[in-house]
Amino acid sequence: MDRTGLLIILSSPSGAGKSTLARRLMDWDPSLRFSVSATTRPPRPGEVDGQHYYFTTAGAFHQMVEQGQMLEHAEVFGNLYGSPSAPVEAAMRDGRDTLFDVDWQGGQQIRASALGGHVVSIFVLPPSLPELERRLRARGQDSEAVIASRMAKSRAEISHWAEYDYVLINDDLDRTEQNLRAILTAERLRRDRQGGLGRFVKNLMEEHA
Amino acid sequence: MDRTGLLIILSSPSGAGKSTLARRLMDWDPSLRFSVSATTRPPRPGEVDGQHYYFTTAGAFHQMVEQGQMLEHAEVFGNLYGSPSAPVEAAMRDGRDTLFDVDWQGGQQIRASALGGHVVSIFVLPPSLPELERRLRARGQDSEAVIASRMAKSRAEISHWAEYDYVLINDDLDRTEQNLRAILTAERLRRDRQGGLGRFVKNLMEEHA
């Protein structure tokens, strides 16, 4: 059936398992498309244009924003980041869902965009803040100052949980993955999300029984 | 968490697999409560009061309707059938979902009732009408006239598919069961269906991190 793809927004404080969950969802459903961000930040070694980011200039970025070609965008440490709408619209036409790994501000902007009616938003909560801090430390990547700043950002992120359609408490990664699969499966079965149902029923009724 | 139970309405033409699916859902989740109907029809051999039906008199039935104690009711071949609200309200308070096996008219009445905001409604379509007729014949219970009347009723039932939240095409019983499980799992994870989330987040934020 010719369904229209959904925009799946996954938000959570950093360290709550979001990236792992996003990767697992992509493994589970290869038709799912991950929204690659555009950025004005220069590529780091190993980063591939169009795969990790669309690397672009500030001029081109601003032009896309002005022409309404960014679903959301933000400035972080002097660099611009945004979600280009064209690949999302192409995926929607193909009946493919797009997964967005964005924070609450990105979520708000996408919900308020012209494609907002196709959004399914999911917030992943950590089981506890000490557990979140423990996970951040376990990465061994960050200084104490960075960890403190991440924890402050996490609290700000968590404060927006009530803006999301679904809320998951990630106390077990496997179970949370199952729950995410259930949400995607169910959302695709909603009457108003299924294309071609009316035609299916019309054909059903016109068959000679 | 102290969630409020949902009212899960499952409708389909007879022969589309609804009873089997309802039984499988109850096996999967023993906390699910099946809504037992009240009826003025006399018990058949082997039928247990309170298990197959609540057997009652027309007087008592009408009194329940007048006192708003029936979520839905209908007259079929001179007998009254209805869904008493009291056991549903008790289950809701216990955080247990109730499963209703009702037709489109029952579904409409429950949706329009005071508990309508807690309804999740699912319509199960047969893959085809000849397949539906084949299944009815395979039961070997019914005369040609009864089968013709059931098929007419099926068409009337199917015509109401667009009033439901979810629509499943039952071309594979196992897959349809998985889809039903996904819908129940996802609906329970909706932010506005989870009780106590606000308190959970409040506690989370007040922990010493």
Automatic annotation (TrEMBL), chains A, B:
InterPro entries, A to Z: GK/Ca_channel_bsu, Guanylate_kin-like_dom, Guanylate_kinase, Guanylate_kinase_CS, P-loop_NTPase
Superkingdom of origin organism: Bacteria
One Pfam match: Guanylate_kin
Listed SMART domains: GuKc (SM00072)
Q: What class of enzyme is it?
A: transferase
GO cellular component, alphabetical, reads: cytosol
Q: Which residues bind ATP?
A: S12, P13, S14, G15, A16, G17, K18, S19
Entry EC no(s)? 2.7.4.8
Boundaries of each Guanylate kinase-like domain copy? 5-185
Compartments where located: Cytoplasm
In alphabetical order, the GO MF annotations are: ATP binding; GMP kinase activity
List the catalysed reactions.
GMP + ATP = GDP + ADP
What keywords does the record list, in alphabetical order?
A: ATP-binding, Cytoplasm, Kinase, Nucleotide-binding, Transferase
Q: Which CDD domains match?
A: GMPK (cd00071)
Report the family membership. Belongs to the guanylate kinase family.
Query: What's the stated role of this polypeptide?
Result: Essential for recycling GMP and indirectly, cGMP.
Q: What is this protein called?
A: Guanylate kinase
User: Which species expresses this protein natively?
Assistant: Paracoccus haematequi
